[in-house]
Design brief:
Among the domains are: 31-132, Ubiquitin-like (UB roll), CATH 3.10.20; 217-293, membrane protein fhac (Ubiquitin-like (UB roll)), CATH 3.10.20; 297-365, membrane protein fhac (Ubiquitin-like (UB roll)); 375-448, Ubiquitin-like (UB roll), CATH 3.10.20.310; 454-531, Roll (Ubiquitin-like (UB roll)), CATH 3.10.20; 533-604, membrane protein fhac (Ubiquitin-like (UB roll)); 752-938, Porin. 18% of the residues lie in helices and 41% in strands. The protein contains 14 helices and 42 strands. Helix 1 (7-26) packs antiparallel against helix 5 and helix 8 packs across helix 10 (406-421). The protein is globular, with a radius of gyration of 37 Å. It starts with 6 loop residues before the first helix and ends with a strand. Residues 1-59, 396-401 and 623-630 have low confidence and may be disordered.
């Protein structure tokens, strides 16, 4: 199908071809047809079938297969595709075997049509004719541009870019587009759909030609069924008006607005619908009639407290049991009041009815307002007070942040009971009381724990493939530990997963618990083991550019291995991490009771990328809300990436950054393997010019890095670097850098160890990060470098309570030897010490008062985040305390010389880190500067 045609014409042609084939096959006396249970030949997805090269009847003597070949789209199939066929030369000819082979090929999901050609009489040759499943490469919408392409494609479900293509789906997609146009008022649109097949790859380009027609004009809109509201007031809420085009989607939105309008008037159960729609073909107009049934009016009266009735009105929008509605309303009112601190509030409710009206009355007694800063527990035996607070997420006393919400206090008994239940205490009861202690109201939870249930005996019935010791390690239920029924269901899943990961398929696990003593249970897992299967072959398909050796390196399982499910999953993840495949699918195809073929189906993604960016920057960090007053400069970036170079998953990239402050050009080569070893490497070459506070420099250099994960979450980064730096200005008088007009060469080797256990790299809330970097610069290759540097960093993120989150960062840098200024430690600014501007913490030059950097650095950052508005979860406030300094020499280090900064800020969470506005004070500012410093930036303190 290299050409195209309308979907309907091609559908008819396909059906006619199948019909003629059926007549021919019917005339052949020997077997011919679809395999039992296989797809039908007339389906749009294609079908299996048989064609014969000989019409002679089968002879009595057994037929032998002397050759099997495979063709894909009329071309050679290749070794991997041939491996899909479970029939080989030397096998006895059997139509049943051919049926099984066809089913196995279909199960791969790679082909839309499978046919078999039989040639010969006593010696049979079989040719499998396979048609690849087609994928949609491009979707083009041509013709009338009455709607945007985005709006039309949003309504396409049958066909998606990169999705499977069939002619049936093409017809459904055309109908979906027609329906989308109809919703926008084009009631008589015509969609012509056709496609063009790529002559080399199994890809198609789909084209929809749209003839939208014209919209009908609204002649009139009548409102029927409600006399309590003026028609003009109702029509004023409509976007659909007389004289405007009729757009069904707009009318649907109008009906929603009318329901809201009637809800505000006190009719939350009002029903509005389109009663009739009359088209007038002679003048292209339409008459609409909307039916309005307001039902009873509902008035909600909340007495004794200032509470908007919108808090409970949604409960009464539908017809509900009145008693249930009153209970739900009271619950919402009490939760609202308790969160405001009225922990002893009460509500009495009633319902009054008149003709056409229902009045819900809530009499509220708020009582006195309290702020609860502390909770106490009585009756604890299993938990300690500190342990139960930690489990419940209750932190220390924090009066500055308003204490503990009253609504949360009343939710706590149920949470405590569930906590105990998970520890084997099903009869725990918790009561909440309040007590005044030292003029402070405290919440006291009295806990009656009850007896703890434990597991006395744990056994596995029906297990023969694996021993009880291995199975016990797979479950969380343990003899002598708490008995909790939900854990049994989790253990069923764990055992089934364990069997899958050991290559066993078809295992079913059940669980039963029997009480053997007063508080002890016997737990029995019944295991109906499946069959352990091996991988006969691994078939790779779909890779056009990527080398087979590149793929095989990522395989965590081999032919002949048991079908370990976890290794198969790890293989898929490893292939996805290469970043060169748009889709990775791995299917298991059974070929016998104890063997499967593993089909690795790959779809290569876009290889080459180009991107351009234009923006603005400031010379230093923005320190004013008047952004234009911060010295704006233009900034641009350009990036070009060549991916999957030579089919080895390697990447070549060219990146340039240019501005009035800095210019940089970087060429990078990234490779997943080094001489066949699983070691990710990167080679970089760069040219750059950058302006800092005390100096500016031109630099050129090359580096080679190797990245290797090891252990649990650990990463090793080793780098060999050579760089030549020339200072083009220097505002400090430092003996080590007095040759500012001459290149200073550095040859160094560095090793970094990184451990990242944060829950989110960009917006962490819990976990920790640790890194240590050691760099040795040695005078090799005629370089002047001769120094050592080490840098340590530790971050901790701790959720406290009630949305509070505490974080701490510690950084220490040490150096020795002849360290040039561009290799020294600097600090100051929004990401290090917020009591000084960028780079300006530490010793200054006597004459210019510019920072000279140092050989020792100590920085400590403490920050507490808290929610500002419950409805805005991405917005939070922060208070911070920074402590540290930069020392020109290690011998200058002294704890008494550490500077302090205090401040507060606002955070707005974004996908790439928080947008931060900070106001910081240096508690020991330099003479003549007492004003705070404003920092505006994005990203965490690092």
């Amino acid at each position: 199908m290299n050409g195209g045609g309308s979907a309907s014409m091609r559908k008819c042609a396909s059906g006619f071809k199948v019909f003629i084939l059926a007549l021919i096959l019917a005339a052949v006396p020997a077997y011919s047809g679809n395999p039992a249970g296989g797809p039908d030949a007339s389906t749009a997805d294609g079908a299996p079938g048989f064609a014969r090269g000989s019409t002679s009847a089968a002879k009595a003597r057994p037929l032998t297969i002397v050759g099997v070949s495979v063709k894909v789209d009329d071309g050679p199939g290749g070794q991997d595709i041939e491996n899909l066929v479970s029939i080989a030369a030397g096998d006895a000819y059997s139509s049943k075997k051919i049926d099984v082979a066809i089913k196995q090929i279909y199960q791969t999901g790679l082909f839309s049509d499978v046919r078999v050609l039989k040639e010969g009489e006593s010696e049979v040759r079989l040719t499998f004719l396979l048609t690849r499943r087609l994928l949609t490469r491009n979707l083009t919408i041509a013709g009338d541009k009455v709607l945007s392409r985005k709006k039309l494609t949003e309504n396409l479900y049958a066909l998606r870019q990169d999705g499977v293509f069939t002619e049936d789906k093409l017809l459904r997609a055309a109908a979906e587009l027609k329906e989308a146009l109809k919703k926008e008022g084009f009631l008589s649109s015509v969609i012509q759909a056709h496609y063009e097949r790529d002559p080399i790859q199994p890809l198609v380009d789909v084209i929809f030609d749209v003839s939208a027609g014209r919209r009908q004009i609204i002649r009139s809109i009548d409102i029927d069924g409600d006399a309590s509201v003026q028609v003009s007031a109702v029509k004023a809420k409509l976007e659909s008006r007389e004289g405007r085009p009729f757009v069904p989607s707009t009318l649907e939105a109008d009906i929603g607005r009318l329901k809201e309008f009637y809800g505000v008037l006190g009719y939350p159960r009002a029903e509005i619908s389109l009663e009739s729609q009359t088209l007038h073909e002679e003048d292209g107009t339409v008459t609409l009639v909307l039916k309005v049934v307001p039902h009873e009016r509902i008035r909600i009266l909340i007495k004794g407290a200032k509470i908007a009735d919108s808090l409970v009105r949604p409960i009464w929008e539908e017809r509900v049991f009145e008693e249930w509605g009153l209970l739900q309303s009271e619950s919402r009112i009490l939760t609202f009041l308790r969160n405001q601190g009225y922990v002893f509030a009460t509500v009495r409710s009633s319902i009054e009815k008149d003709a056409g009206e229902i009045r819900i009355v809530h009499d509220v007694n708020s009582g006195r307002k309290y702020t609860i800063y502390e909770v106490n527990f009585e009756g604890l035996r299993f938990f300690t007070p500190a342990a139960i607070k930690r489990e419940l997420g209750l932190g220390l006393n924090l009066p500055l942040f308003g204490g503990i919400a009253g609504g949360r206090l009343f939710e706590m008994p149920a949470r405590i009971e569930k906590l105990y239940e998970a520890r084997g205490f099903p009869e725990t009861q918790v009561d909440l009381n309040f007590k005044m202690i030292d003029n402070e109201m405290r919440a006291i939870y009295h806990i009656e724990e009850g007896p703890q249930l434990t597991i006395g005996r744990l056994s596995f019935d029906g297990a023969s493939l694996f021993g009880a010791v291995a199975l016990r390690e797979a479950v969380v239920s343990v003899e002598g530990r708490p008995f909790f029924r939900p854990d049994m269901q989790k253990d069923i899943e764990r055992l089934e997963t364990y069997y899958l990961n050991q290559g066993v398929r078809g295992t079913n696990v059940t669980a039963a618990a029997e009480q053997t003593e007063a508080h002890q249970y016997s737990v029995v897992f019944g295991i109906a083991e499946g069959r352990r299967v091996k991988i006969e072959r691994i078939v790779l398909t779909g890779n056009k550019v990527t080398r087979r050796s590149t793929i095989e390196r990522e395989l965590k399982i081999r032919q002949g291995d048991w079908a370990y499910a976890d290794r198969i999953l790890e293989t898929r993840r490893s292939l996805e991490k290469l970043g060169i495949f748009a889709e990775v699918r791995i299917e298991e195809i059974p070929i016998s009771t104890d063997a499967v073929n593993l089909i690795v189906n790959l779809r290569e993604g876009v290889r080459d990328y180009i991107s351009l960016g234009v923006g603005l920057e400031t010379k230093t960090e923005p320190q004013s809300f008047e952004i234009w007053a911060n010295g704006l400069r233009p900034r641009g970036t350009a990036e070009f990436i060549l991916g999957n170079m030579f089919g080895r998953a390697s990447q070549l990239s060219f990146v340039t950054q240019f501005s009035l402050m800095e210019t940089r050009a970087v060429v990078s080569w990234e490779n997943r393997y080094l001489f066949g070893l699983p070691l990710q490497t990167a080679a970089n070459a760069w040219l750059e010019r950058e302006e800092r506070v005390s100096y500016g420099y031109d630099q050129r250099g090359v580096s080679f890095s190797a990245i290797k994960p090891f252990g649990r979450d650990w990463v090793s980064l080793s780098t060999l670097r050579w760089a030549s730096t020339t200072l083009y200005f220097l505002d400090v008088a430092e003996s080590q850098v007095d040759r500012q007009h001459f290149p200073f060469s550095v040859t160094s080797v560095s090793e970094s160890l990184i451990l990242d256990r944060r829950d989110d790299s960009f917006n962490p809330e819990r976990g920790y990060f640790f890194s240590v970097v050691a760099e040795w610069a040695y005078p090799l290759f005629k370089s002047e470098s001769d120094f050592l540097k080490a840098f340590f960093k530790y971050q901790r993120f701790i959720p406290v309570a009630g949305g509070l989150n505490f974080s701490a960062t510690a950084r220490v840098g040490l150096g020795r030897g002849n360290i040039p200024i561009h290799e020294r430690f600097f600090a100051g600014g929004s990401s290090s010490f917020r009591g000084e501007p960028y780079d300006e913490l530490g010793t200054k030059d006597v004459v210019s008062q510019k920072p000279i950097g140092g050989k020792a650095l100590v920085l400590l950052n403490f920050e507490l985040h808290f929610p500002l508005f419950p409805a805005m979860s991405n917005l939070s406030g922060a208070v911070f305390y920074d402590k540290g300094n930069v020392f020109a020499a290690r011998k200058d280090f002294s704890l008494s010389k550490l500077e302090d900064a205090l401040g507060f800020g606002i955070r707005y969470r974004t996908p790439i880190g928080p947008l931060r506005i900070d106001l910081g004070w240096n508690l020991h500012p330099p003479a003549g500067r007492n004003q705070p410093i404003i920092f505006i930036t994005i990203g965490n303190v690092f």
